[in-house]
Write a structure and sequence with these properties.
This is Iron transporter. The protein has helices at about 10-15, 60-65, 90-95, 110-115, 135-140, 165-180, 185-205, 230-240, 260-265, 280-290, 295-300, 310, 315-335, and strands spanning about 35-40, 45, 55, 75-80, 100, 120-125, 125, 145, 215, 225, 245, 255, 270-275, 305. By secondary structure, it is an alpha/beta fold. The two termini are about 35 Å apart.
């Protein structure tokens, strides 16, 4: 499996904390039995007590819990095994400690078997109408839910997702989880570290016409799957010093047509690395696909690779901004 790029994120984001884990000490607000009310996806949600057996879906959501030192509050996680080598990540201890429940998406059976009292997932990150795995269905089973903010339905269409800028979604979830689990200071420290790291990249980023145009390529040959303005790549690209060519698409992750990519002529293509098709296979396809031959990124072979976990809401987003920022500064100088 591919090695995920962890770098020194743990040191950067948790400089004021000891290690990558934390002992959860309930605050006065969360003494274990007191109710906590949060705003999640625009709705007030009340939790009667601090969850003790949380089940998560996918790598980014799981690592949000680990980044807050909440592995002791987890009963397990579900995650496909195509997300890279997890032994070198900042939260290796969390992966070693928490049970891997399924190498597919979460199901009600997973949650019930784990005796879960909270499921932390998102729309198309576990929650989905077609299988009946929804917060409403879990509520009937006596299991609470928290919905990943990046995935919140925005009301424009039945399936369109995203209600706020992606990094704001990351900060909102860290703040909410900090309040729910009584680790507000750890959440605040993480957010402050992330903001500082991103501000440093922004200060060096190209401006105006020098900003490279960037297309995010997730997958697909007949039609590309990409990121609109509400998924994490939008702000990862913009904070790094580029412009997402699909900024006007009012959705998070969605399918577009190749003709729209050609028309917008990106200077750089960022590949999302995961799944059965390797980043190198995706690169070869892009460079050999005839309709793209005159696109600047293909003509100049400006293709940059980030891992899946870098490009979904996760505590690795700031590190992705820094790495992409360094690449885009080089591209800006060459143009």
């Amino acid at each position: 499996m591919r090695k995920l790029l962890a770098t020194a994120l743990c040191l950067t984001a948790t400089a004021a904390l000891s290690g990558c884990g934390a002992t959860v000490q309930p605050s006065a607000q969360t003494d274990g039995n007191s109710a906590v009310t949060l705003t999640n996806c625009g709705r007030k949600v009340t939790y009667d007590k601090v969850p003790e057996r949380v089940v998560t879906n996918d790598v980014g959501i799981t690592e949000l819990m680990f980044a807050l030192g909440l592995e002791d509050r987890m009963a397990g996680f579900a995650m496909p095994d195509d997300k890279g080598d997890l032994t070198g990540v900042p939260w290796k201890d969390g992966y070693d400690k928490v049970k891997w429940l399924s190498k597919d998406q979460l199901t009600k059976e997973n949650a019930l078997d784990a005796d879960a009292d909270l499921v932390f997932a998102g729309w198309n990150y576990g929650f989905r109408e077609d299988s009946g795995f929804t917060p409403e269905a879990l509520k009937k089973l006596g299991i609470a839910s928290y919905v990943l903010t990046e995935s919140c339905r925005n009301g424009r269409t039945e399936s369109a997702r995203g209600i706020m800028p992606p990094l704001d979604a990351l900060y909102a979830d860290l703040t909410n989880l900090g309040k729910l689990f009584g680790v507000e200071q750890r959440a605040a420290t993480l957010i402050a570290g992330f903001r500082k790291q991103i501000a440093e990249v922004r200060a060096k980023a190209p401006t105006g016409a020098d900003r490279p145009k960037v297309f995010l390529y997730d997958s697909g040959q007949d039609q590309p799957f990409t990121s609109g303005r509400y998924a994490a790549p939008e702000q990862i690209i913009s904070e790094a010093g580029g412009t997402n060519v699909m900024h006007d698409v009012q959705d998070s992750w969605t399918t577009v047509g190749w003709e729209s990519v050609v028309r917008r002529d990106p200077d750089v293509i960022v590949i999302c690395d995961y799944g059965d098709v390797s980043a190198e296979q995706k690169r070869k396809f892009l460079l050999s696909y005839a309709p793209l031959r005159d696109v600047s990124a293909v003509r100049n072979k400006r293709i940059f690779v980030l891992d899946y976990v870098d490009l979904v809401e996760s505590p690795r987003n700031p590190s992705a901004v820094a790495r992409l920022g360094a690449y885009l500064r080089t591209v800006a100088k060459e143009r």
